[in-house]
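[Q] Does anyone have a clean structure-token version of this?
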Amino acid sequence: MRKAVAYLSDHYYLDIMAFFFLLLSFLIEPLLSLAANNGFVFNPVDQVFKGYLKIITSPSILITDYVYIAGIGAALFNVGTILIINLLLIKLLKIKMTGPVYAGIIMICGFSFFGKNIFNTLPIYLGIYLFSIIKKVPFKSYILAILFSTGISPLVSYAIFGLGLSYYGSIPLGIGCGIIVGFILPAFAAHTIIFHEGFNLYNTGFALGILSVCFYGIFTFFNLKVETVSLYDYSDSVVFYYILPILSILKIAVAIISDPEVFKKYWSLMKTSGRLVTDYAGEYNRETVMFNFGLIGLVLFFICLIFQIPMNGVIFGSILSILGFAGYGLHLRNVLPVWIGAGLMLFFKCLIDNNYVLSISNIMCFVFASGLAPLSGRYGIIFGIIAGILHILITPLTIGFQGGFDLYNNGFSAGFVAAIVYVLAEKIFNRGERYGRKSKNK
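[A] Here you go.
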């Protein structure tokens, strides 16, 4: 049994995940109707494909919950299809499943619940492909840029469906914007990491945020109105409250069955800072990454449960997105101090506002504050808490700069926070190497 589980975990675990989402997309709404004593009605055309068309034709700008606008079945179908296409791309290019690649794949899954779809991602991929031709570098060399690039995919959708232009003009505009971003991004993202010294796990979000500011400025200059939206609701989706713990427990179980020494390896992993670029799958193994994924997932599940956080498409998608970084720099030791700082700041905000109901934006800020985890991994708990506090303060401001085109808005703000805390810890207080060892590949 151990060999069978190990074989599946090495070769087909993401394929199984894609199949699970696709199967669930057709069954979930009939099953929910049956649970509500409304009978079992199986009508995939109405429940899935019509909803999927709404997703494809949505402007998709922040914050657009695909579950809210199209139904949970259509949202799951979108996740499954975009996951399959990216897995096929990886197999065609013969890409090894490293920690960074794993993070990119899972992040695509998460944001496919709000903002990403096949239609608005392919022009960006085309831009990266053209860049590889111009530079005479194999397309596969830019696999990380490919996987993380789609954080700016709403730019394509909004240019086509959100500006109110005729399709004769909007379709070329949207596709052209996507190609331009894809062409620029590989070189630009490699440069922006210098700004925060690798202490922002969501570095591509920082690069895409800067590019989004440029496009937002261009649209505004030509009187093309860009407005962020709030297309979501606060109702719980019971489905996600089941999916998250089940997925997390399965990851842990598979990891333990496949590798009985996973506990020892995980203990070693938690001694790393997580600073970019880290490959936990290569440095340890896939089982350690899955174990890490499961633990972080369970922690977030209990946080949502205890504080009665609504698990809609946006929140579940956000949580799923960061879990991929279990292979790329994130673990409980370096992320908990950041979440403590972010949680304290949100608590103070509730006291000041005399309102103890957190907005979706605040919850997203908390989840994605995890991008600053390497700071506490390198410099200790206090600087992790400071990073979490600053993230809550700065993030709400940055969406106004970039117009909502950058789905990784928290990665955009985390770039500035990381630069501030890095200077504070390294240059002023000289913390240096005191906390957390570097990964082996540093």
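[Q] Thanks! Anything notable?
[A] The two ends are 36 Å apart (CA to CA).
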